[in-house]
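FAQ: What does the model actually see?

It sees only this:
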Amino acid sequence: MSRLSQAIAEGDGISVLVEVADGPAADAAEKQGADGLVARRGSAGVRAASQLPLLFVGAAGDALGAAADALVISPDPAAWEEARGLGLDCVVRVSDSDDLARTLEELDPELILLSADPESDEDSLEKLLALLHDVPAGKLAIAELRDASAHDVAELERAGVDAVVVTSSDIAALVPAEPPEV
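And it is asked to produce this:
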């Protein structure tokens, strides 16, 4: 099990993965309770600022340079093979049921990133929940909902999403509270 999948699977609720642009943002996200980080090319100093699991969005070579734990890829066998050949864990981004079906059949990934088209007129949360319906048990589902509210995160958690990618500056408001001790 990869560091990213382990961090997601071990949590008691939904894990919050925060997209960060640099080391100070990574440090702030970690202090506010993020379970993992998401970085893109040009995200200098993220690994140096935090040891949280790091998911990279971009080219496989750049992911290696960023010391990422996992890489977001398209549902493409060539991208899958390249990333796996470099020792990276793959998180396959799907945006519709056809992508999801093809991904499950051809790649059978452990981690699936459910992504709604931001240009679509469809409600992003509803689109993600509809895609989640087709994710088989045993797979870790990550929802990409950058502008998620606390209500959205709670809805995704109730539906069975394992993690959510956000860009919120107030991560603490999105991190589920610890359940009371009994």
